[in-house]
Amino acid sequence: MNQEAESGLKILIADDSNSDRILLKAIVQNQGHQPLLAADGLEAVALFQQEKPDIILLDALMPNMDGFDTARFVKANSGDDFVPIIFLTSLNEADSLARCLEAGGDDFLTKPYNSVILKAKINAFWRMLKMHVTLQAQRDQIAENNMRLINEQEVAKRTFDKIAHEGALHLSNIQYQMSPLAVFNGDVLLAALRPNGNLCVLLGDFTGHGLAAAIGAMPLSQTFYSMVAKGFTVKDVVYELNLKLKDILPVGVFCCATMIDVDFSGKSLEIWCGGMPENYFYEAETGQKKAIASQHLALGILSAEKFKATTHIQMMQNGDRFFMWSDGIIEAENAAGEMYGESRLEQVFIDNGDAVDLFADVNTSVANFIGATEPSDDISIAEIMMVDHIEKHDSPHKAVKNAAMAAMDWCYSYEIRPQTIRNSDPMPILQKVLMDIPGLRPRSGELFTVLSELYANALEHGVLKLDSSMKKTPQGFTDFYQQRAVRLEELNEGFIRFDLDYRGDDQQGELLMRVTDSGDGFDFASHRQKSSDKNCYSGRGLHLISSICKSVSYIGVGNQVEVVFDWHNVPNEDVN
Amino acid sequence: MGISARVSEDGTELNIGIDGRFDFSSHQDFRKAYEESNDALDKYVVDMNATTYLDSSALGMLLLLRDHAGGDHANIRIINCNDDVKKILTISNFEQLFEIH
Amino acid sequence: MTDQIIDEAALAELRSIMGDDFQLLVDTFVNDSEQRIVALQEAVDTADAELLRTSAHSFKGSSLNISAGRLTALCKDLEDRGRESRLDGAAEVLAGVRVAFDDIKAYFAA
Question: Which domains does chain A have, with CATH numbers?
């Protein structure tokens, strides 16, 4: 619509009758509009292109180019603009009226011209024009906002990808399906290895969509990666995540999450699940699956005092698989508005012939159900399989060249007492101390396996006085961990002390680690003979420790163990 | 779809009824239902009798109501849940925060 | 359709719309009409039904707008004849058109 529209419209009058044209001109002028005059179709088209009139009054029969062709030209060349055409007719001949409509006419004015009727028609179109202009402006605004939003999301996503990098998701025992823009649906999948070699995976689902859903993913990822790399346990990590999210997120926004810790040497799986749909644990030997339901509220709802970090521990043999997903899969809708639902998901596991295909089968089943050729944006799913050991990975602590490897000679002692034993894990602190020795960094995985085993023994058998032979049967294994939790909760006396003694230079070094607990000790001489039985779940990990360390020795009644761990710089080794 | 709010005769209990899908589109109405109520209220009932479905943003709205009603001291009952609705509330472990029937 | 030469009430309306330009409207109508009568004569002489129809159609529209009832009716008669190629008697109707037009000119000249 013309800029000067408020002071009247530009109205093109095309009529070959001079007297009719003069009359229309007068009527239009009297109403405050600006008339443009054309005596035939060609003149009308030229004026239309030059002057961009708001409304056209068009005689049907004109020389050179008639009204029908003129109307068609105008409609074809108006683009997104609405240019109303009012046909001027002598008589209500149904046939010619139909031709006017067909050519793009919007209304008729019959002779003799009535100024009141024409005024009403022009005003009606004027209102429509204003509405059309408003709609166009709003449409353009929406398109522009949408473009801006997409740009913002792309920038946000690039930032997000740096913080929530794929971590350890590339490991061959993990399969996952996430939309590249999943974070804007609130879904996040993170994986990282702890220094002891355990794999931690977290699948989170924030409420809401768009940037609001993505915003919480930043602190979530940052905290996850930083804590897991320092060796914190699932309990510590979810506790901290809950605290952080509760602090940051407004009431009503939260993050449903499942976090697991896969212990490849101990063949167990630790699960914390809050607000997520049932996870599936698939047992390779029996081909059966078992559902593991969420026991907790989502992260970011409860205050730190009320939050419960209790986990579920599951034995997991090689080939066993754990499936985690957000509610996107359950709620995936087909064209009829039906939801995929749990029963269909369950059926996939019943129908499956080969566990290797399970992951693909689930995805195919959902895709077939919703009738899509590509996975839906809302579907996030991950499968983690138990394997013997994971492939060598890039340690976050790559060995540095000699410059930083000065000679060192120190000892460090750290004793933890009941309150600390109950509430925290000493491993991250010890890790920090030990990772200051550059020569040890390439072997951090082994070192922490040793340290964790020694700590577990001191805690479980020494301080908590649990009998490792309990773990010989699957039921006993479960009982063992229940007992462990109960006794830990009730613990009010005892200690565990770590004495670290290190001496080394830039070429080699020797670390002595002594772990002493307040327990009764054990008969280590006879234990050594029995421990060749490989099938038992117990064994205090002594095999493992012996295979890594230069020496292992028990002292006194067996409540003190001393191991020596050494390293040598191998000449010309590519440490990058 | 709609949200209705009714205060008990003694003015202490607010009954909020949710008809149809309880999702983000109900956000404004649901908030209005309890924010416009008077201060004498100390009990809240969310009636899901006519609720067909709820999504995670509805869970968020319930948490907002809980916050409004006094957080840990809130007295909120969620009643007449159908199986689907109950299941979603259960998966989310909301029985730890609300009395659910 | 009224058979009046001019509808006085409608003409008063036209006067108010046109204001000072009323005479221009009348002069334009008279000039146009003289040309149209030439065209109609040619159509009758050459028995050109299509020319008769289009010329009569335009003349009819202008006459309607000037509220010249009898002239409008006669033009419509010619237009119909042109459409239906009934040229017998068209010359007599055209003679009537001339009379009616002369009456209008006389009315405006008065």
Answer: 3-135 (3.40.50.2300), 164-385 (3.60.40.10), 402-568 (3.30.565.10)
Which positions in chain A touch C2 (Cβ < 8 Å)? none
- Cβ pairs bridging A and C (under 8 Å): 52
Residue A480 pLDDT = 82
Q: How far, in Å, CA of C93 to CA of C51, rounded?
A: 15
Q: Give, rounded to a whole angstrom, the gap between the first and last alpha carbons of chain B.
A: 22
Task: Flag if A19 and C67 touch (Cβ within 8 Å).
Answer: no
Q: Is a pLDDT exceeding 90 seen at residue C52? A: yes
Would you call B60 and A252 a contact, using CB atoms and an 8 Å cutoff?
yes
Question: Nearest chain C Cα to A31, which residue?
Answer: C17
Q: Write the CATH number for C88.
A: 1.20.120.160
Contacts of B93 in chain A (CB under 8 A): 274-275, 294-298
Contacts of A23 in chain C (CB under 8 A): 14, 17-18, 25, 65
Residues in chain C: 110
Sheet holding A10-14, edge to edge: A34-38, A10-14, A55-59, A85-89, A107-110
Chain C contact for A26 (CB, 8 A cutoff): yes
Confidence of residue A528 (pLDDT cuts 50, 70, 90): low
Question: Is the whole-model pTM more than 0.90?
Answer: no
ipTM score assigned to the predicted complex: 0.93
A461 — phi, psi (to 5°)?
-95, -40
Q: Residue A190's closest CA among A382, A385, A428, A445? A: A382
Distance CA A359, CA A372 (A): 17
Residues A377 and A258: beta-carbon distance below 8 Å: no
Please indicate, yes or no, if residue C1 is contained in any of the structural domains: no
Q: Which sign does the torsion angle of CA A23, A26, A27, A33 carry?
A: positive
The residue of chain A with its CA nearest to that of B61 is A252
Q: Do B97 and A256 touch (CB under 8 A)?
A: no
Residue A513's alpha-carbon distances to A51, A441, A461, A498, in angstroms, are 92, 16, 18, 7
Nearest neighbour of C18 by CB, restricted to A17, A26, A90: A26
pLDDT tens column, A282-325: 999 998 999 999 999 999 999 999 999 999 999 999 999 999 99
- Give me the count of residues in chain A: 576
Task: Spell out a b/e string for B83-99, using b for 16 or more CB atoms within 10 Å of the CB, else e.
Answer: eebbebbebbbbeebbe
Q: Residue B95's domain is classified under what CATH number?
A: 3.30.750.24
Q: CB–CB of C12/C62 below 8 Å?
A: no
The domain containing residue C71 runs over which residues?
8-109
pLDDT of residue A311: 93
Domain range holding B78?
2-100
Q: What is the CA radius of gyration of chain C?
A: 14
**Chain C contact set for A113 (CB, 8 A):** 65
Residues of C in contact with A17 (CB under 8 A): 32, 58, 61-62
Distance (Å) of CA A554 to CA A175, A496, A512, A515: 43, 15, 13, 10
Q: Do chains A and C touch (3 or more CB pairs under 8 A)?
A: yes
- Please state, in angstroms and rounded to a whole number, the distance separating the CA atoms of residues A516 and B1: 66
Domain count of chain C?
Answer: 1
Q: Which of B61, B92, B98, B100 to probe the A interface (max A CBs under 10 A)? A: B92
* Residue A134: other Cβ atoms inside 10 A: 11
Inter-chain CB proximity A23 and C14 less than 8 Å: yes
Determine the distance in angstroms separating the CA of A376 from the nearest CA of chain B, rounded to an integer: 18
